[in-house]
Amino acid sequence: MKILTWNVAHQTHTANKNLPLMAEALASLSPDIIVLTEYVPGKLHKKFTADLTSRGFSWTISPASPTIRRQNQVLIASCTPLAPGEIQAPLISPAFPSNVLHVRFPQSGFEVLGMRVPMPLDLAIRNKYWNWIAATAHQSRDRPTIILGDLNNDTGARGPEGGVRFNQLKEDGWYRAPAAGKSYWSKDGTIESRLDHALFSPHFVIGKSEYITEHGPFLFANTQPKNFNPKAMSDHAILLVEFELKTP
User: What is the pLDDT of residues 66-99, one digit of tens each?
Assistant: First the structure.
């Protein structure tokens, strides 16, 4: 199977000229599961999900409960049935709950926790985010679970809330898909980071994983922001991971 995560950088606003091509662009990579972060459902939300359905992604879930105004959401689409899960993020900040979405795949027997970790100026809040992620991962590690999305953290980042957090998850039995390269480029061209990750519980075999900035006619991420390309759909690359669930 193949799972894909992508920070669409608010590119699902009604006015974005790239939105009509986005479902086609995603389908061109032939994923089984799509996890979109920084998804903002606008007036074209129904059209976008209908476009996904027409390309085989017949099951789509986004947060059902009302979200706080101006906050991002997560959308998960799949070629096979999925159902809402029970994990909900706490109100650590107004931005956190709608940036986390848990779903189950009844036919396949595994779970997916899609998320975007907000980037707060307050390090104490950032610490609370990661404490919750670590606790949730620990509680979920005995079930086939994938945690993925824009974790707003680089494996090479320094400090107590940096790469050390990935080491803690590894020590707790989690495996990170080893995609090489970068996944984010700042608009001023001064920052290149690996912010998008996929973490797997021990129940999976991880295959090929890669960051994808372009495919065929589609430009997913602008890797040279100073030479802005209007066809770029985001400032994040897509992370695409092949995986298999181990047989009991």
Answer: 556 667 899 999 999 999 999 999 999 988 999 9
Classify strands 100-105 and 83-84 as parallel, antiparallel or unpaired: antiparallel
Q: Rounded to whole angstroms, how far apart are CA atoms 192 and 190?
A: 7
* Host domain of residue 187: 2-245
Could you report the per-residue pLDDT of 90-147, keeping only the tens digit for each?
A: 999 988 999 999 999 999 999 999 999 998 768 899 999 999 999 999 999 999 999 9
Enumerate residues 6+ apart whose C-beta is below 8 A from 165. 130, 133, 134, 153
Structure tokens at 120: 């707060």
List the structure tokens of 203.
């129940």
Domain count for the chain: 1
Q: What is the CATH number of the domain that holds 70?
A: 3.60.10.10
3-state secondary structure of 223: coil
d(CA 99, CA 96): 5
Query: pTM for this one?
Result: 0.94
Q: Which two tokens stand for residue 174?
A: 């989690």
State mean pLDDT over 27-35. 98
Which secondary-structure segment (H or E) carries 211?
A: strand 204-212
Task: Determine contact, residues 41/73, Cβ cutoff 8 Å.
Answer: yes
**d(C-alpha 21, C-alpha 117), whole Å:** 27
